[in-house]
Every structure is written in structure tokens, then in C-alpha cells.
Amino acid sequence: MAQGITLNSTKTQANGLNNQIKQNQNKVTELQIIINRYKTQINKQESQKISLKNEVAILDNRVAQKQLDIERVKAQLEVTRLEIISLETQITHQSTRIASQKTNAGALIRSIHRNDNISMLEVLLANPTLSTFFDKLEQDQRVEGQLHDVMQKVKGSKERLEDIKKQRDNKRIALENDKKHLIQEELALEAERNFKMSLIAETKNSQTEFERLLYELKQQQQSTSDDIANLESHLKGRLAIADATLARGDTLLNWPVDPSHGITAKFHDPAYPFNYLFPHSGVDIRVPVGTPVKAAAGGYVAWNRHGRMYGNYTMIIHPGNIATVYAHLSKFMAKSNTYIDRGTIIGLSGGMPGQPGAGLSTGPHLHFEVREDGIPVDPMNYLPSIAGYYAPAPITANILQTN
Predict the structure, then answer these.
(1) Which helix H or strand E contains 377, and what residues bound it?
(2) Which end of the chain is more exposed for a tag (fewer CB within 10 A), N or C?
(3) CATH tag, 207-381
(4) How confident is the model at residue 312, as a pLDDT?
(5) β-strand partners of 32
(6) What is the pLDDT of residues 277-308, one digit of tens each?
(7) Hey, is 52 helix, strand or coil?
């Protein structure tokens, strides 16, 4: 009776969990439909004439989309959590069944064992006729057959239990991946909001200023390439002394800051807010405001400048036609027109929207570029590799404060 009650309660619990799982799955589907509508609207807006009003509208829609993305991932997290509970309930149920089957098997084994220990004389004395003896022999054979059936059931139950445990472990892995995805979405939402704040601050909400900003960016990219070429030609002999590693042809650079907080935007990142206007020309390394920034290699500090896109930025010319750019600095610490060694502190990081030197920023980080022959290239090809560099851990509120 007690086992029947347990089975009924388990079934009731399973039905309740399945209903909750279905509700959350429906929520995920509904949210995805709305997210797709926002994506369609954003694509439509990006194909329209470039204007400040339209850019702000795009950013607003991207923020709304990211908020829904977060809700969708949270619903997926809940689905996975409920599925794990359901699987654990099944594991408990299967474990109880296996224990019961083992108990039954034990009783049958003991019964057969007792019969096996009876001698032929005892059989003849205990049974008045041979017919009775053969009836008992047949019964023993049935017991042995039942034992075989029970053992097969135990084996089958064990295999099913192992499958359920494997499913649960896979669900736990999926849950951890969903959590990482949620962190990415929350960071992306923060970046979209900060980018809008930076854009409005830099343009003072003026279409004319917005057009000037875009013009300056295009001019800056071209003039920087020309300046690098001229400087490399002028400094070629002295640059070889600045960094022997690069001078001998080894292009490995050092990380300018600790990358353990994560890379929030990759080279030519499709998720970069202004990607369709101009590609992201470096990597964004998430670090607290005020973090010391070190030269990735020895070289010549070409300049410390302020631009509306990069904010405060430093450029260093290195041997081997390599140059590096460090943007959104809160403070310059290396003098221009000087030679420095690899690892020298050249500035402090910034990037907090609205603060001096931040420029057009998505939040506290260092924008780091590598240029070869004046052309931006992927910095990850020149830096020591790090595991899982994209999908960073969140930076807490106290880290976001200005040092």
C-alpha cells in the first residue's frame, strides 16, 4: 500500500513538473517571436539613411531586444532546472524499484539454495509419493525461471537509471552554458545602454555633430595609417634596439592589461553596435577604470591624443612594421616622442561613459589595436592565447567605480 502511495505521489509530482516545463517552453517560444520582430526592425533601420535620430532608435531597439534575450535565457534556465528536478525524481523512483527487485531476487535465491541443500533421502522421506516430489521439482524450476526474470528486470532498471543519470549530467552542463549565455546578454545590454549614452554625450544630440563625428573617424583612420608609415621609415634604425624580440621577427606581444575579466568585443565583431558603419578595429578588454596599461612591446611613443571615438589614446611604433593603439585612457603616463621598454606603464584605463577621455565607449575597458603596415589586424594573432576569452565574467558595481 505504501509503495502504491509513493508511486502516485511521484506521478503527481512528475505531471506538475511537466506542466511547468511546458509553460516555460511556451514562454521561450513567445519571447523568441518578439525578439525576431525587433531584429527585423533593426535590420530595416540600418538600411535607412544614416542619422543621429535613426542611430538612437537602433540602439533603443537593440536595448529592448537584449532585455528580451535576457528574459528568454532566464526562461530557458528555468526549463533546464525543472528538467533536472524531474530527472532526479525519476532517479529516486528507479532506485527504489531496483532495491525492491533486488530484495525479491534475494528471497528467490535463498529459496533455491534451501532446496539445493536437501539430499535425495530427505526428499523421499519428506514426500509420500514420487508424484509429489516431481511437483516440487517443477515448482523449483519455476522459481529459478522467476529469478532469471527478476534479475533481467534489475539489469534493465540499472541501465535505465544510468541513462537518466547521464541525461541529468548533460542537463547540468546545459544549465551552466545557459548561465554563461545570460552573463553575455547582460553585459551586451550594459554595453548597448552605455554606447547610447556615449553617442548622445559626444554629439550633444545634434545631427551636425554626429556627421562631424563620422567624418572625423574616417579621416582619423586614414591619417593614422599615413603617420605610421612615415614614422616607421624615419625611425627604422632605432626601433630595432627598442625591442629585440620583434626585431628578430618574433611578433608575439604581451597583454597590455590582465585579460581575465574577459574580451567584450572581438576584432570585426558583428555584435559591435556600429559594426555596419565601420568595423571594430581591435579588441575590447574589460578592466576597471584606473587599471595600469602596459606597453605590449618596446618601441617609440608616437603620440598621446584625444579623439571623439577613441577618447584619450596612445600609439606606439614597434619594430617589424608593427604599431599598437591603446584607447579610452583616463590618464596618459608615457611621454610622446620617447622610447619605452616592453611592459612600461603608459597610462591608466578608462571608458566610463561621460567621463573625461572615455570617447565613444560601451563601458569601462581598454580598446587595444594592432596595426601591421598601418592596417588594423586581429590582435589575438599576436597575443598569448587564453581559454574562453569571449563570454566574460561580469564586473561588479564596485569595480565600475573610478579609482
Answers:
(1) strand 375-377
(2) N
(3) 2.70.70.10
(4) 95
(5) none
(6) 778 899 999 999 999 999 999 999 999 999 88
(7) helix
Q: With pLDDT > 90 as the criterion, what percentage of the chain qualifies?
A: 21
- In contact, 46 and 58? CB cutoff 8 Å: yes
Residue 47 is classified by DSSP as T
The single-letter code of the amino acid at 61 is N
**Residue 108 · residue 154 · CB < 8 Å:** no
CA atoms within 13 A on the CB side of 300: 20
The Cα 230–Cα 218 span in angstroms is 19
**pLDDT tens track for 207-224:** 888 888 888 877 777 777
What's the chain's Rg over C-alpha atoms?
A: 35
d(CA 331, CA 188): 26
| Contact by Cβ (8 Å): 302, 322 | no
Model-level pTM?
0.66
The three three-digit cell numbers of residue 320, written as one number: 617589424
Hunting for cell 526562461 — which residue is that? 75
Please report the DSSP string for 196-261 in residue order: HHHHHHHHTT-HHHHHHHHHHHHHHHHHHHHHHHHHHHHHHHHHHHH-HHHHTT------SS-GGG
Residue 399's pLDDT is 29
pLDDT tens string 242-262? 777 777 777 789 999 999 888
The one-letter amino acid code at 129 reads: T
d(CA 125, CA 118): 11
Quote the CA–CA distance of 162 and 154 in Å, as a whole number. 12
pLDDT at 388: 47
| Domain extent listing, the chain | 2-200, 207-381
For the CA atoms of 318, 320, 323, 324, what is the dihedral angle to 10 degrees? -80
Q: How many residues does the chain have?
A: 403
CA nearest to 313, candidates 298, 299, 330, 300: 330
- For residues 140, 143, 149, 150, the Cα torsion angle rounded to the nearest 10 degrees is -140
